[in-house]
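Record type: monomer structure entry
Structure origin: computed from sequence
Chain ID: A
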Amino acid sequence: MTRTNGRIIGPYQTVNISSAGGMHDSFDQYNYKLLGEWVYPPTVEVSLSTTSLNETTNKDLVVTLNTTGYASGTQFSVEAVNVSNFSSSDMNPYSGTVTVSGNEASATGNTTLSVVADATDETPDTETFKVEVRGPTPATTLLATSSNVTITDTSTAPPALSLSFQEQRNGNDIGAITVFFCQMNSTGSSIAFTTSVYTALGNSSATWVSRSGSGYPNMAVGTRYRVAWLHNKGNTGFTGDYAIDQVNITGTTYDFTDATGWLTTTAHTTSISTAFANSSQVPTSTSAVRSRWNINSGSTPSSNTGPSSGYGGSGNYVYTEASSPNTTNPTYFWLFSPQLIV
């Protein structure tokens, strides 16, 4: 394509503008002759990969910028901003930087924003936002705004945590019992924090008694956790065999037919983290090993302490054997449930 300048500026000439789209006036031709290139007005257009997101199958939003008049390498900031019911915590990341590549005639770049599942909502709802483009960095001038995007929020509140179990505190040397809900780290390899949900002290009954926890922590959906029992045997006598059976943790019941996933430790420590780091499978045994829990059925070896059978008259239970070497004061027995996920 060719166009003449009509002799408005300078002598009559033919200018090749095949690489420049749109209409151009004589001033453009003057700049072209002066600079050897077309001068493009600065423009920014924002396009989105979708306008409908959710928290499971369509979480990612690709934000693409197409520009003219900006050099390759120019940076712009993009940010999701509220239209209705939206907050920055609904996405991670909710903002980003786009670096365009190309030339002043045409440059492009993109970044991705992602929806985060809302673990605290009790009812599904819909959030709406738009993407604002500002720059060029470090400037904060608003340059473009996208169309609205909706997030279909299908999350609900996590299930309520709960704990119930059968307990037997039979013996004058029982001491103190504390039960913890333990939030694990993301891989389940260590304990992040604990919340005490049950405490008891001293001799109670030679029969099984139903117990439950209270004051459970708030944990987001997907959180790994365990329940831990600490028996702090406080006296030097041997009548301190403490036992539990029929443990129900948030709807999952353990009757100790076997102890798969249940952990104990021989580390004599007040530190729950140290105890867990040195824990191993609970054994089927009635032997007295320092600080260790055992699985048993029937009576424990010592008289005047411990159960005579599992809850209901038969079956297994787990217990602490208070005989020597566990007659020192104090002795700490740690027990950890299998790992569960909220």
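Annotation 1: The first strand starts at residue 2 and ends at 4.
Annotation 2: The first helix runs from residue 26 to 35.
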